[in-house]
């Protein structure tokens, strides 16, 4: 029990630190949202009267002379009430609404892609590790090269090849714009079709990491005594591979997978940028580009909670999965 | 074995399903289809957040299309304002009263009649809600009868006309009087008098449809769809794929748009004066060699504008007047008293060096001029990612090195750059000056050269960033506010004063007049603006200009 209390206390402190940094870092940046708004309008509407500046300061309430500290306490207060404030870049939409709109897209796209690359990596890693020294070993450098290629470049190559060149996939967007989002077959089909290429990019570039980790663990478990014993008993090869070796080798990957699930929430900014995907990553970029403090804080808060939560779950579950940690804990 | 067979069947089924989807969407209905819908891209990155409040800085759409101004001011051609909801307007002799006659046949899209009450309500709302008053309106409006409105001002306000008549969007009293907070309401179901109305809204695209009861007849263009993409990169890709019909922004190889994008045409309009902003005024706290007018003039003569145009702007930029008026649009107001009609396109190194030597600079051993033991070295701030400006800056620093002026380009994030610009904490930076709501050089001068719009170094200027504070310019601007804009003879002496003073001071060192380029689908639609017939500034994000263009477009089938 002491172990759990200590863990929880640690996570609370980490959460407070993250939230505090989350508040102060954006405010240490130069520039302010009104300037950005004015510049955007000057680019978009051609002319901006100097009178507009005062109007927007009043509108966004950014001309206030409140001290940073009182702003900080106000921020903590509203945050615990679940009120994340109003976004400046999509004024006057509440931040919680923007996040609620964008999060499902990211969760589904990045979630499924992460799961697929994990499953694929573990299965391939098991095979490659089991048959080490055969031609299968060449899968390791092949996939790690894909992981090492700059991500946006890989995405752009895929777009150039499969979308622009061959026209197999749509160029951009999360769904066909003529459809209304809903739970009908046509829309879901369109969403799947639009999501294939971004998902493929994520899978291609992250499968290598899982594969390498799994293969190396396989190699070390296959040299364990119990595997030798199993072989001596004359068990089928596939049974030994799956039930004896892989089962033990997969433990570290499972922990890694749980943590990367936490990062799913952060989306992948680059994928969403390249494919104009309507997820949380593109919203985060929008927030940073517009000095939209409220939206930045809201998104970082969601990410922080997700990552800390995933870590906590792993910490607590690991004791269940791997009996050895329970003994020392 | 059995397992394997099952798995490969599942894979085959998956592939088949994908293939079916691929063929089903093969025609990709997002493409600029044959249904006469105009697909535009305004540079929006990320999803649309519903907001059809025309007074909101984040409004998606509305000014000109759904909600109309009283008149349309063409800000690139010196022509009379075109009536929209207004028919005629007259000022009294000293510019303190503006009388407007309204149309009597306009209707809101819910069927109610548009009257003078709506105009007075709108103007009063802007007065009551300072956060909506982006035009600086200070008048008091009264309805004389259903088709006449009279607006009184506390001071001569001739120059406020275009803002009030052309940039305040009329809203229905019967709908808006019930709004608790009109400044922040997102107006989910906009009701306007304009040629278009909202058809449907989705986060990735929204559509306007023609208003069948528009007083000037239903527009020939039936639908306009606005896409949300992730930025200019994806805009360019969508243009290449023929998925958008109109966008504004540079594309690679601008010269050959018609060859690279079959059916499309491009138009480039010189509008923004690209200049080296200098923190010029030591009295307001500026520091550095650029506070010496001789140094600013030496830079002005030493840069090779032809080369900059070629290397940085693909030769799309045009000449620039040293008096800050637009050469083509303001040709009647460009002062004849200027020493040079346009900034020289070729460098004059002899003139630059003689200016510097006259100001007490001597050439050092390293070929850089110096004074009091300090070398003539300046930093030039530019926004990281603005590739054309970065090229221009690099080119200039090499050109000026030859004359003996050391320029150090500095790339900053937009935020840092804009903060330095606002507070005057810079020596040189590259940016463009913008114009006002009407084809009149007064606005540009009143924004960027008047004491009223500047501030001490350390405080934010809005937007006189060069810290110009000149009694002669201020007096001329004040005089212009009290002269009827139709009275050219009376106005010209003041324009002469402003332009000659600007030429003497060179607070913003003129480089070139930068073009705004748009690409549009000329095969699918006819009626686009041309160089000969510039009835509106053809930028897709220019509001209300875009509504004038929508009104003229016809599907070419």
Automatic annotation (TrEMBL), chain A:
Compartments in which it is found: Cell membrane; Membrane
Predominant cellular place of this UniProt entry's protein: membrane
Family matches, as InterPro entries: MetI-like, MetI-like_sf
Keyword list, A-Z: Membrane, Transmembrane, Transmembrane helix, Transport
GO biological process terms on file: transmembrane transport
Keyword Secreted: no
One term under GO cellular component: plasma membrane
Keyword hit for Membrane: yes
Stretches that traverse the bilayer: 9-29, 102-130, 151-171, 191-212, 249-270, 299-321
Any Pfam family hit: BPD_transp_1
ABC transmembrane type-1 domain: residues covered: 103-318
Domain of life: Bacteria
Membrane topology (UniProt): Multi-pass membrane protein
Gene3D superfamilies xrefs: MetI-like
Homology family: Belongs to the binding-protein-dependent transport system permease family.
Name used for this protein in its record: Peptide/nickel transport system permease protein
Source organism (scientific name): Saccharothrix variisporea
UniProtKB/TrEMBL annotation, chain B:
GO biological process: one example: peptide transport
SUPFAM superfamilies for this protein: Periplasmic binding protein-like II
UniProt KW Signal keyword: yes
PROSITE patterns xref list: PROKAR_LIPOPROTEIN (PS51257)
One MF term in the entry's GO annotations: peptide transmembrane transporter activity
CDD domains the record matches: PBP2_TmCBP_oligosaccharides_like
Pfam families linked: SBP_bac_5 (PF00496)
Transmembrane portions of the chain: none
Signal peptide: 1-24
Organism superkingdom: Bacteria
Keywords: Signal
Domain Solute-binding protein family: 80-452
Signal keyword on record: yes
One GO cellular component, as annotated: periplasmic space
Gene3D superfamilies tied to this protein: Dipeptide-binding Protein, Domain 1, Dipeptide-binding Protein, Domain 3, Periplasmic binding protein-like II
InterPro entries the UniProt entry points to: Peptide/Ni-bd, SBP_5, SBP_5_dom
Protein name in UniProt: Peptide/nickel transport system substrate-binding protein
Organism: Saccharothrix variisporea
């Amino acid at each position: 029990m002491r172990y759990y209390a200590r863990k929880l206390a640690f996570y609370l402190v980490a959460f407070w630190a993250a939230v505090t940094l989350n508040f102060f870092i954006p405010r240490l940046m130069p520039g302010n949202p009104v300037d950005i708004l004015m510049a955007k309008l000057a680019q978009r509407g051609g002319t901006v009267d100097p009178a507009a500046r005062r109007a927007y300061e009043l509108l966004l309430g950014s001309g206030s002379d409140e001290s940073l500290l009182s702003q900080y306490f106000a921020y903590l207060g509203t945050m615990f009430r679940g009120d994340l404030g109003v976004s400046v870049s999509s004024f006057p939409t509440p931040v919680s609404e923007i996040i609620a709109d964008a999060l499902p897209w990211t969760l589904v796209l990045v979630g499924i892609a992460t799961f697929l690359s994990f499953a694929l990596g573990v299965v391939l890693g098991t095979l490659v590790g089991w048959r080490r020294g055969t031609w299968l070993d060449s899968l390791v450098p092949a996939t790690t090269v894909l992981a090492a290629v700059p991500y946006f470049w890989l995405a752009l190559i895929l777009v150039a090849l499969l979308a622009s060149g061959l026209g197999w996939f749509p160029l951009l967007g999360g769904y066909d714009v003529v459809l209304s989002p809903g739970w009908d077959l046509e829309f879901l089909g369109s969403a799947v079709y639009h999501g294939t290429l971004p998902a493929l990019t994520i899978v291609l570039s992250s499968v290598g990491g899982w594969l390498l980790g799994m293969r190396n663990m396989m190699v070390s478990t296959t040299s364990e005594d119990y595997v030798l014993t199993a072989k001596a008993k004359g068990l089928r090869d596939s049974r030994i591979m799956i039930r004896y070796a892989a089962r033990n080798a997969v433990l570290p990957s499972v922990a890694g997978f749980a943590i990367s699930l936490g990062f799913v929430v952060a989306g992948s900014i680059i994928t969403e940028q390249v494919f104009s995907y309507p997820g949380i990553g593109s919203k985060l970029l929008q927030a940073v580009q517009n000095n939209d403090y409220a939206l930045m804080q809201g998104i970082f808060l969601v990410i922080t909670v997700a990552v800390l939560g995933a870590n906590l779950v792993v910490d607590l579950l690991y004791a269940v999965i791997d009996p050895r940690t329970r003994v020392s804990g | 074995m059995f397992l394997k067979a099952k798995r490969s069947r599942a894979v085959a089924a998956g592939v088949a399903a994908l293939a079916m989807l691929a063929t089903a969407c093969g025609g990709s209905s997002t493409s600029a289809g044959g249904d006469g819908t105009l697909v535009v891209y305004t540079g929006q990155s990320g999803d649309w957040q519903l907001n059809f409040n025309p007074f909101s800085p984040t409004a998606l759409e509305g000014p000109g299309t759904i909600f109309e101004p009283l008149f349309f001011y063409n800000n690139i051609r010196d022509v009379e304002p075109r009536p929209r909801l207004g028919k005629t307007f007259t000022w009294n002799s000293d510019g303190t009263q503006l009388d407007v006659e309204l149309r009597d046949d306009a209707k809101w899209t819910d069927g109610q009649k548009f009257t003078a009450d709506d105009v007075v309500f709108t103007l009063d709302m802007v007065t009551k809600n300072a956060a909506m008053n982006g035009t600086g309106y200070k008048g008091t409006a009264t309805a004389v009868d259903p088709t006449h409105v009279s607006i009184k001002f506390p001071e001569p306000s001739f120059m406020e006309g275009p803002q009030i008549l052309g940039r305040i969007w009329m809203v229905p009293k019967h709908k808006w009087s019930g709004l608790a907070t009109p400044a922040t309401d997102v107006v989910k179901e906009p009701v306007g008098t304009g040629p278009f109305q909202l058809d449907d809204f989705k986060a990735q695209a929204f559509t306007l449809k023609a208003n069948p009861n528009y007083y000037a007849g239903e527009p020939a263009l039936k639908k306009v769809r606005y896409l949300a993409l992730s930025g200019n990169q994806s805009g360019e890709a969508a243009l290449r794929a023929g998925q958008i019909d109109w966008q504004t922004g540079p594309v690679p190889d601008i010269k050959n748009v018609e060859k690279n994008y079959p059916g499309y045409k491009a138009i480039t309009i010189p509008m923004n004066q690209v200049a080296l902003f200098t923190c010029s005024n030591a009295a307001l706290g500026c520091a550095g060699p650029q506070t010496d007018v001789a140094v600013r003039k030496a830079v002005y003569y030493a840069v090779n504008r032809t080369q900059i145009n070629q290397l940085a702007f693909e030769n799309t930029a045009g000449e620039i007047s040293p008096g800050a008026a637009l050469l083509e649009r303001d040709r009647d107001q460009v002062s004849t008293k200027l020493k040079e009609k346009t900034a020289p396109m070729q460098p004059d190194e002899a003139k630059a060096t003689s200016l510097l030597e006259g100001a007490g600079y001597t050439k050092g051993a390293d070929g850089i001029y110096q004074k009091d033991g300090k070398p003539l070295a300046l930093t030039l701030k530019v926004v990281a990612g603005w590739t054309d400006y970065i090229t221009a800056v690099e080119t200039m620093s090499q050109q000026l090195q030859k004359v003996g002026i050391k320029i150090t380009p500095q790339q900053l994030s937009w935020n840092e750059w804009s903060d330095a610009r606002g507070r005057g904490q810079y020596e040189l930076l590259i940016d463009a000056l913008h114009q006002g709501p009407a084809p009149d050089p007064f606005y540009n001068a009143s924004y960027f050269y008047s004491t009223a719009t500047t501030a001490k170094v350390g405080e934010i200027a809005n937007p006189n960033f060069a810290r110009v504070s000149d009694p002669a310019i201020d007096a001329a601007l004040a005089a212009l506010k009290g002269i009827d804009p139709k009275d050219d003879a009376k106005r010209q002496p003041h324009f002469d004063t402003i332009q000659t003073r600007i030429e003497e001071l060179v607070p913003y060192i003129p480089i070139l007049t930068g073009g705004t380029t748009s690409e549009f689908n000329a095969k699918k639609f006819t009626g686009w603006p041309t160089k000969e017939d510039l009835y509106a500034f053809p930028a897709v994000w220019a509001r209300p200009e875009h509504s004038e263009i929508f009104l003229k477009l016809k599907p070419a089938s």
